[in-house]
Amino acid sequence: QLQLQESGPGLVKPSETLSLTCTVSGGSISSNDHYWDWIRQTPGRGLEWIGNIHYTGRTNYSPSLKSRATMSVDTSKNQFSLRLSSVTAADTAVYYCARHRGRDNWFDTWGRGTLVTVSS
Amino acid sequence: DIQMTQSPSSLSASVGDRVTITCRASQSIGNSISWYQQRPGKAPNILIYSAYTLQSAAPSRFSGSGSGTDFTLTISRLQPEDFATYHCQQTYSPPYIFGQGTKLEIK
Which residues contact A58 (CB under 8 A, 6 or more apart)? Predict the structure, then answer.
């Protein structure tokens, strides 16, 4: 059974870069049919899609975060990652990694989520 | 961006009730909507995709309908485990926008 697990610092200082990794187990990240997504959730803004990456390295970002978000994939480790630069308190959220099938665009598998707090 | 307006934001109901949650898209999205259930402290879990197709593990008391801009999620007979937050999501085109969520509480 496919499982996703987020990892990374739970506390990031303002203006610094948030870095998270999602480890995929029970399946291969090198699937031509699937995309690997980052989604975050706050009480005020609800669920917010950040972007996704294909194992070939092709990316797609939300316009609202495109200038600050960078995603990468490491097929040898079955992992994909998110970097979000110049963070502020507004980036405090639970961050989820997830998967979707290319032609469907709904998320069939999610990680458990990790809380990232931006504070000095 | 295609915006999704979900209502109500919260809803109180009793076990055995029938409840309906709605989502309206800012433009026509055909049947490109999915619905998720989220329990406290957990990740969302897919219930329905393509407006009305029930995910294999979802109970049959859940149903979805609608097309174009107006969509509904219906729970026919509420069970205790259904009290959770529900989210719609447009799957038509990126960015994949979610509704603000509906928190379903026990009356």
Answer: none
The burial class, CB within 10 Å (0-12 / 13-18 / 19+), for A25 is: exposed
Instruction: State pLDDT tens for residues B25-50.
Output: 999 999 999 999 999 999 999 999 99
- E strands present in chain A: 3-7, 11-12, 18-25, 34-42, 46-53, 59-61, 69-74, 79-84, 93-101, 107-110, 114-118
User: Coil, helix or strand for B76?
Assistant: coil
Grouping H, G, I as helix, E, B as strand and the rest as coil, residue A93 is strand
Beta A79-84 vs A69-74: how paired, if at all? Answer: antiparallel
In the beta sheet, which residues pair with residue A73? Answer: A80
Please identify among residues 83-102 of chain A the ones whose CB lies closer than 8 Å to any CB of chain B: 96, 98
Chain B residues bordering chain A (beta-carbon distance below 8 Å): 1, 32, 34, 36, 42-46, 49-50, 55, 87, 89, 91-92, 94-101
**Average pLDDT score, chain A:** 97
Of residues B70, B71, B74, B72, the one with CA closest to residue B59: B74
Between CA A65 and CA A70 the distance in angstroms is 9
pLDDT average, residue stretch B64-70: 98
8-state DSSP, A89:
G
